[in-house]
Amino acid sequence: MSSGYVAVQWNRHKRVYDIIVALALSLFIATFFVIGRLMYRGEHAVSDEILLMRALGACAFCSLTVILCIGPLARLSTRFLPLLYNRRHLGVATFLTALLHAVVAIGFYHGFGVLNPLRSLLETNTAFDSLASFPFQLFGLAALLILFVMASTSHDFWLRNLGARGWKRLHMLVYPAYLLVVLHVALGALQTQSSSVLLTVVLAAVSLVGLLHVVAGMRELRTDARTRDEPPLRGEGWVDVCGVDDVMEGRGRVVCIGTRERIAIFRHNQSISATTNVCRHQGGPLGEGRILDGCITCPWHGWTYRPQDGTAPPPFTEKIATYRVRVVGKRVQVIPTPLPPGTAVEPARIDGSPHG
Length: 356
Prior knowledge:
The protein is an alpha+beta fold.
């Protein structure tokens, strides 16, 4: 969180993360280049420019695959949350890698003619009716443009001005971008490679991304189904959502009432509070976070809110919706109608003295 905009809100975690990303990408590219030099010798030798182009392209593809895997992995296990915390940094690094791949490729294949390189890229190959000669470069160019838009808007300035929902929709374009990259590889490199290694890697990457999303989605559906097994709503009255012992001290629990928005239930200092489950930043699941320094802390990027009123601590101004909550015996009950963001609600005491 920040009360003002800066280029990067640096901290130790981000510096370590970025150093690891830079080292990993550099090591991948260098290893790919060296192995390529050793594999292709004599009459099968490949120029350094082509090897570098391939190394950059392979690195960008693998990085994009990792980015798409981080989300569902974080849903399946909290151990992957540190990767999610700075995923935008990895996204920008992926775009820069893909951009270098494009610069080398366009310069090598289109930079020595009389036409402008970009015009040459767009006009030289028009064999749209041939699978083997299809202008696969256009898929790569389209994917690069999408990655550029995403990288250039990977800042809280754009998140605030576009709104969380609009920003999220914009960055969901990563999936069409990945499809375009796969088509770029399938109609390009796979058409000229006799080895099955590249095909195996591409199929494994796509299958891994798809499988993780399916597994994470099924887990979400099962969780929602369990929390929906509650008594039917009676007007806008109290609804039993969970047991007191189902919520650990200093932690949250997500409940889902019918088709309504998910509610986050928190236990802190022998009291129960209820807020929306959606973080104002990027829609992170607040109920999967914890109470730190007396504040609800989003597990995605660390944004914080006071559980009693859903307001971020000063000097921050973000607010989230709260819910009226009470404890009856050993059961937690809420009124499922959200209150305006920032509305103060007295936490319900677990000792049997509900407030609100």
